[in-house]
Specification:
The chain starts with a helix and ends with a helix. The protein contains 31 helices and 26 strands. Helix content is 43%, strand content 19%. The strands form six sheets. Strands 1-11-10-9-12-13 form a six-stranded mixed β-sheet, sandwiched between helices. The longest helix has 36 residues, at 364-399. Strand 6 (162-166) and strand 7 (169-172) form a beta hairpin. The chain is of the alpha/beta class. It has a domain at 721-835: Hexokinase, domain 1 (3-Layer(aba) Sandwich), CATH 3.40.367.20.
Length: 916
Amino acid sequence: MLAVHLVSFFFSKLQEDPTKKVDRFLYAMRLHDDQLKDISARFQAEMKKGLSAESNVTATVKMLPTHVRSTPVGSEKGQFLALDLGGSKFKVLQVKVREGMGIRRGGVEMEEKTYPIPGELLAGRGAELFDHVSESLKDFLHEKNISLEKKHPLAFTFSFPCEQSTLDQGKLLNWSKNYQVRGFQGKDVVQALREAIDRTGVLAMVNDTVATMMTCGFDDNYCEVGLIIGTGTNACYMEELRHVDLVEGDEGRMCVNTEWGGFGDDGALNEYLTEFDKDVDAASNNPGKQIFEKMVSGMYLGELVRLVVLKMAKQGLLFDGFVSHALRTKGKITTADVAAMEEYKNGLKNTKDILTGLDLNPSPDDCIAVQHVTTIVSFRSSNLVSAGLAAILTRIKQNRNLRALRITVGVDGTVYKTHPQYPKRLHKVVRRLLPECHVRFVLSDSGSSKGAALVTAVAQRLASRRRKVDETLSPFRLSHEQLQLVKARMRTGLEAGLKTKGPSAIKMLPSFVYHTPDGTEHGKYLGLDLGGTNFRALLVKFKKGLQHNTRLYHKLYTIPQEIMQGTGEDLFDHIVECISDFLDYMGLKNARLPAGFTFSFPCEQTAIDTGTLVSWTKGFKATDCEGHDVVSLLREAIKRRNEFDLDIVAVINDTVGTMMSCAYEDPQCEVGLIAGTGSNVCYMEEVRNIEKTEQKKGQIEREEMCINTEWGGLGDDGSLNDIITPYDVEVDQNSFNNGKQRFEKLTSGMYLGEVVRQVLLDLTRGGLLFRGHVTEPLKTRGIFETKYLSQIESDRLALLQVRSILQGLGLDSTCDDSIIVKEVCGAVSRRAAQLCGAGMAAVVDKIRENRGLDHLNITVGVDGALYKLHPHFSGVLQETASVLAPQCNVTFLPSDEGSGKGAALITAGARLKEKM
């Protein structure tokens, strides 16, 4: 008896609070944050699956590439026609986009007309549907006095899942929203539209979600997500292209249409499905498909509410158990009814009117309960959308390696626009799930048609920019024929430089090094290396016959710029100060060691231990050095300091030192290459070809001598003018040695960064980069160091890191800017590597012909940061040399210890020859 009273008391309490019985009845629809985070994590996993080529076929979230590669930047312009097909009606529009009026400046004008689609066409043949679209378009053109003869750019919003291989092509995957047009699945809808329309060119086909993002992006450059919550539901966002397996390329971003309505089709949401969701699905046109959409979208919310209310009535929890025929009828409660019942002030009155219209006689408590049902159903919808959106925003944040994300979501759809509570609920839950993200929601005020036109406008802008960038960079892209000419001119320059008469831009300086190492070198030697902004002192210990048992100790010293460009006396005093410190460090101050001096500037030598500086390069301008013997200058500085003495046995170029250092490891090494701050080559030449040493032939009795080519001077006579660009001219005119070292200025690390800066400056002035804003850093000579080329061109570097490098230089770049900057760096560095390869082909072919060989196997010893650190330079150089000198098998061997060890080896060889 007591139990009966308790049950009676319990139900009386429920009667007192009608919302509680609804909460109990629909507890499964009330999702808490942990559940939403779980759903979000599952959706992230589906996104990743959809982006992968391996798993896309089985993914329920298709993640369709749209080939939309940029959101608007405000400089778009043009006049377009737009078609918007996605429901029971479609629209034709004329859209005018005014240049420079985007990003909150209201630069889009539209005229539109809506055309109904007869019901029979929704289930008819595809050709009939598109013929109707075509006739409606022609009617619009006639009404607006737009020429039918002229070809007009057309944007097409098609709000159904399509697989796109280009922006103007799309194969229909499946119909939705009550469309069941026959014989069309798997066919290209753009082609069908083209066949129906005679003279209109379709430039872009986009999904309504993408168009929404673009519409809002025209007024807010943070908008990179589009969201539709209406009859259907979907989302799109800008994904990093490197993650989109179904599209070639990995630079930049592309808008991906998630088609998230299919989430859960594989059972991923089964534990969150209620019996009402299952009933809605079973009664739909596509059972088992679009599960997420059926839990969320306006096409189904009203039906979910009806099924809940029907079951509660059957169980006696509403209307005293009375069930009307209307309540049993599918579709009698619409999503518009749901929105009306949740109105803030009139919600209960609207609820009563709607229920009365269903032939029911609701009590006040019935009205409160039914209103609460609509709240729970629509709240679950906004919660699920929030979970999906949180997954997308989390992925964007992780892609860009950001702690916090500022982003705007463009939104459209009748549910979002007409439901009084939906937007607030959605915003609140998203921000609660992602507190570290600043998310702004912008309502699309012009629908997806404007966005489709903007996609077309953006595509035209990108195509125009692509053409202009290609035109700018085309002079850097050398053809095979051009490289053959460079090889031939290098060969001519090498031959001319060996003669005593006639001018030559390539100096071809004898080094008086007649042999590469043979393994007999032993003892302690000092190596001194002046090659650029650093000076290096080394102590090298050789063990006889043991090439791989060399001991080497060294220290590196900086040469300040004021010393590089001061007096010669100050420069050599600084070098001697560094040597003194090193000898102290090694405890060798009192030992008179034999030393080799690597001096990486053009010198004329008459013996191994003398070298007259011809001219400074690499930014050095120290006075009273050119025309003087650098060994004498060093000896005089040592005397001035009067702390130690050295036996300076040899002075060599760094290229020669590199060759000798590598030849110690590989006897086939007979060429040295420097590809770093400077650019140069040396090689073993037949003495009979060196006219400059002809008078000594009888004394020497040797067959070969290493020649320091100083090939950086190629082009000083105008021989490279046909490949020199205006940017190279600008760099040359601003250099310390205007008109000199033209080949070096095309190939060496000291100049490549400055060439890139000149190109970037020109592109910016043309409005193709950095929004046309020429900043002070961009105008600063030398700010773009060559090391940035190596960093930016790294295959492992994401565009976000490229942007970070540019921002560190004061260059605020977009994703698109970063792509162009990387392309400029690639064009400049590739040309440099190709030119070095062409020069190398000339050198090795000359050696082969000197020796009368059909085929030559030879090793090139290499040093320099450009060769060693740039990710592609070495590969391009080797490939070019191989193509241009096919009869030579050239191996490139990087020098581990640089030219200082080579100087020590030459010193050791010279000392051993003296003792023999």
